[in-house]
Amino acid sequence: MTTGSLRRRLVAASALVLGGALALSACGDSDDSGDSGGGAAANTSADSKLAAMVPDAIKSDGKIAVGINAAYPPNESVDPASQKIVGWEVDLFNAVAAKLGLKTEYHNAGFDTIIPGIQSGKYEIGVSSFTDTKEREKAVDFVTYYSAGTAWATLTGNPKGVNPDDACGKSIGVQQGTIQVDDLKARSKKCTDAGKPAIKSVIRKEQTEVNNDLVAGKVDAMAADSPIVGDAVKKTGKLEIIGQVYDTAPYGFALSKQSGQFKDAVQGAVKALITDGTYKKILTDAGVESGAITDPAVNAAQS
């Protein structure tokens, strides 16, 4: 696997801020579940042809069991007031499910347990900002729906003078299991090969912990997916983005290799939502429309 084509929450394919107003999420490893079907889904009518493509084993109970790690705002997080899982990816997949004539049941789980859960049949789909990669395609299928890259952030004014292209000797926060972890390893090796100090990777279990560390000044900078960094900058009011977004790649809904036409039905639903304007509205309302795509694909990982 190359860091040029992988970004988001890297897991083994065989298996894988603050309180109050700044609380960007919660609940990493619990397996709480909840039904969701409001928002855009409430105004989305079912497409009979797409619904007919959903395998009986999936549609028999009228809902889709979704594995999600709700600690990656604004994509997915737990609303502290209602304790419901929210986010633009949740809104989007609720609308996808509605197109298929189904409801959604979200199970909040550790990120690295979702793909194994799909393989075992525990979840019927994974909706958790998965980057579609060649390695992951060995374990699951993907239907793409968004494009994101890696971004860096520091405290406003960049007081530690961090340069993403020369971060030698700096402490950089990243989430456990992400491609940013490998990215920092590669960058650190360049530093030590050049006789410079290594980059100190400060790895946290959840992205919200990374955000908190940076706001508190415990790290010099952080690296994460571009919409996540943008959201942290907006909500904290204490951070700024530095450098340019890089390693842009597609997010994909993750499905079992044995799901039959389910992937085609999901792809068709995403296409329908793009056509009728629902897709654009969801992304625009969340302020993440810069990553919109026009042609969802099945297994479109970059080499």
Notes on the structure:
- By secondary structure, the chain is an alpha/beta fold.
- The protein has two domains: 20-148 and 248-291, D-Maltodextrin-Binding Protein, domain 2; 150-247, Periplasmic binding protein-like II (D-Maltodextrin-Binding Protein, domain 2, 3-Layer(aba) Sandwich), CATH 3.40.190.
- The chain is built from nine helices and twelve strands.
- It has helices at residues 48-53, 56-59, 88-99, 111-120, 179-193, 207-215, 226-236, 262-276, 278-286; strands at 33-36, 63-68, 71-72, 76-78, 85-86, 103-108, 125-126, 140-155, 171-175, 200-204, 221-225, 239-256.
- Helix 5 (179-193) links the parallel strand 9 and strand 10 (200-204).
- The radius of gyration is 19 Å and the shape is elongated.
- The relative contact order is 0.22.
Which quaternary structure do these chains form?
Answer: single chain
Query: Strands across the major sheet, in which order?
Result: 10-9-11-8-12
Fourth CATH level, the homologous superfamily of the largest domain: Periplasmic binding protein-like II
Question: What's the CATH class of the largest domain, please?
Answer: Alpha Beta
User: Overall pLDDT, averaged?
Assistant: 88
Cα-atom radius of gyration: 19 Å
* Class based on secondary structure composition and strand pairing: alpha/beta
List low-confidence stretches: 1-31
Task: Please give the alpha-carbon distance between the first and last residues.
Answer: 8 Å
CATH-assigned fold name of the largest domain: D-Maltodextrin-Binding Protein, domain 2
Q: Mind telling me which CATH architecture of the largest domain this is?
A: 3-Layer(aba) Sandwich
Gross morphology is: elongated
